[in-house]
UniProtKB/TrEMBL annotation:
GO molecular function: ATP binding; kinase activity; magnesium ion binding; ribose phosphate diphosphokinase activity
Spans traversing the lipid bilayer: none
Gene: LOC100845512
Signal peptide limits: none
PROSITE patterns for this protein: PRPP_SYNTHASE
Full protein name: ribose-phosphate diphosphokinase
Residues of the Ribose-phosphate pyrophosphokinase N-terminal domain: 86-201
Cellular compartments per GO CC: cytoplasm; ribose phosphate diphosphokinase complex
Matching PANTHER family: RIBOSE-PHOSPHATE DIPHOSPHOKINASE FAMILY MEMBER (PTHR10210), RIBOSE-PHOSPHATE PYROPHOSPHOKINASE 5, CHLOROPLASTIC (PTHR10210:SF120)
UniProt xrefs under CDD domains: PRTases_typeI
Length: 401
């Protein structure tokens, strides 16, 4: 091993500031920079042979060196609970976000969302998400455009804050009904919204009860699709309804697969179908009924109720055909006017829905029952974070084709 020259030994003894490498690395930095380190100079070493032995380099006294403390920027990305998982809530449904965080034993992340006087949206994260697995809970419910834009800005803020993974948790996916061209020169807004979420920087999407399952193919990123029916099934199972008296009714032909899977889980109940002809948007006309409902308890199952025109006309037909009671079940309670008047008119024994969309007090009525999907979404978030399968019981996909 070659011995160091006298110039090298002098550089070592003089400390980092005297070495050529340190000089190059510090060149151009102002002395006020937090990375500029001033070290005390040590006298050059005098190398000499003693009794013909090779020269030795004495170790400098440690008291001559000043310990260096590197500056710390921001807070630690690992919380006291030891997880890098972060949940942030938009302004669309903060109560659901809080329920999800409570189920998971976490606290909602600190975020500042406000609107300027001209309507523009401002988003700032109040804590570090660098290297974290971030979940943003924000349904695109009415006002759909406001909430969708807020979600996009939240995703962009997390991406620019160096989050490792960003998952958009969308309990209600707006524009899902615009999933195909039924007439010429129409837009497919569901595909457009999927592109916007992807381009904003989301790495994954978690949605609940899409209007049509093929909308998952509009995303170029992984999509976890969960169903709210298990929550409704658990509630119906707690009611004293004889399984022989049950019949599940699909309010239209498009919902047959959903109703069939629901009936299979509900004691393998028989299935009936309401055939309707739609003459315009939010306008439906019932034509006839396929199946037998006479003397039975009819459970109408749909993914959403908007103006309640379809399900109300279907309930009228079921009563005409001799149904003893009619229950209306849906995952998303959009409840656009005049839905409240139609649902509270006495056609339904009970209207069962979930809290994917927040309902104001003026939309409440005696027959309404709201169930929470917080446990369903919270368990799914944990499984996504842990890279586990989300198709687990009792929150499976219900074998929907």
């Amino acid at each position: 091993m070659p011995l160091p020259s006298s110039s090298s030994a002098a550089a070592i003894a003089a400390g980092p500031a005297a070495s050529p490498l340190a000089a190059r690395s510090l060149r151009g930095r102002p002395r006020s920079s937090p990375f500029f380190v001033k070290c005390q100079r040590v006298d050059p070493l005098k190398l000499r042979a003693v009794n013909g032995a090779p020269p030795c380099i004495p170790v400098p006294d440690s008291s001559l060196w000043t310990p260096i403390t590197m500056p710390v920027f921001g807070d630690n990305k690992v919380r006291k609970d030891g997880t890098r998982l972060r949940i942030f809530s938009g302004t669309a449904n903060p109560s659901l976000s809080q329920e999800i965080a409570s189920y998971m034993g976490l606290e909602l992340g600190k975020i500042n969302i406000k609107r300027f006087a001209d309507g523009e949206i401002y988003v700032q994260l109040q804590e570090s998400v660098r290297g974290c697995d971030v979940f943003l809970v924000q349904p695109s419910c009415p006002p759909a455009n406001e909430n969708l834009m807020e979600l996009l800005i939240m995703i962009d803020a997390c991406r620019r804050a160096s989050a490792k993974n960003i998952t958009a948790v969308i309990p209600y996916f707006g524009y899902a009904r615009s999933d195909r061209k039924s007439q010429g020169r129409e837009s497919i807004a569901a595909k457009l919204v999927a592109n916007m979420i992807t381009e904003a920087g989301a790495n994954r999407v978690l949605v609940s009860d899409l209007h049509s399952s093929q909308a998952m193919g509009y995303f170029d990123i992984p999509v976890d699709h969960v169903y709210g029916q298990p929550v409704i099934l658990d509630y119906l199972a707690s009611k004293t309804i004889c399984s022989n008296d049950l019949v599940v009714v699909s309010p239209d032909v498009g919902g047959v697969a959903r109703a069939r899977a629901f009936a299979k889980k509900l004691s393998d109940a028989p299935l009936a179908i309401v055939d309707k002809r739609r003459h315009g948007h939010n306008v439906a006309e019932v034509m006839n009924l396929i199946g037998d409902v006479k003397g039975k308890v009819a459970v109408m199952m749909d993914d959403m109720i908007d103006t309640a025109g379809t399900i109300a006309k279907g309930a009228e037909l079921l009563h005409q055909e001799g149904a003893r009671e009619v229950y209306a079940c849906c995952t998303h309670a959009v409840f656009s006017p005049p839905a409240i008047e139609r649902l509270s008119s006495g056609l339904f024994q009970e209207v069962i829905t979930t809290n994917t969309i927040p309902l104001k007090e003026d939309k409440n009525f005696p027959q309404l029952t709201i169930l929470s999907v917080a446990n369903l979404l919270g368990e799914t978030i944990w499984r996504v974070h842990d890279d586990c399968s989300v198709g687990h019981e009792p929150y499976s996909t219900l074998d929907i084709d």
